[in-house]
Write a structure and sequence with these properties.
47% strand; 2 helices; Hypothetical Protein Pfu-838710-001; 8-stranded antiparallel beta barrel; mainly beta; 159 residues
């Protein structure tokens, strides 16, 4: 059974920028989001995926991810995500044996920077880099859907 074990943090400073080993542009859209479950479509430079995620239990949740064609992903974004999607640039930064993903949001969520790290087990000791700030794992205010709702509330129409 595929399990995602992930921790999320705010970014305290730009110290991570000197250690970036890869950069990826990503567009995400939620086709369904209800009671902690979601179906997400994602488009990257090298393809597209559809992910089905269950509710969180601690740091873990079930996640099933499937490759789909980019044209299918574009259609899902347009028809099932109400034409709304989030854009981000993901920077990959290795530190102390794990790969950190620093997501720098654009568009509606411009200015938000979140660091994520996926772990092989929940009890893994994690050495935090000096550029990591407050942990926000499980804090619903930092879910993409909540951040999007807040920005739309503050700036109707997203502009």
């Amino acid at each position: 059974m595929p399990i995602e074990i992930e921790r999320k943090f705010l970014v305290a400073n730009d110290g991570w920028k000197a250690s970036v080993v890869k950069i990826s542009r990503i567009r995400d859209g939620l086709a369904v989001s209800e009671n902690g479950r979601k179906v997400r479509v994602r488009i990257l430079e090298d393809g597209a995926t559809l992910a089905i995620k269950g509710p969180r239990s601690g740091l873990s949740r079930r996640e099933y991810e499937y490759k789909i064609s980019t044209s299918e992903a574009e259609e899902i974004l347009r028809t099932m995500c109400a034409g709304r999607h989030l854009e981000k640039v993901r920077h990959y930064v290795p530190h102390a044996g794990v790969m950190w993903e620093i997501n720098v949001y654009e568009g509606l969520l411009e200015g938000i920077v979140i660091a994520e790290v996926e772990l092989d087990r929940e009890d893994r000791q994690l050495e935090l880099p000096n550029w990591v700030g407050e942990e926000v794992t499980g804090d619903e205010r930092y879910s993409k859907a909540s951040m999007e709702r807040e920005r739309l509330r503050v700036r109707p129409g997203g502009g």
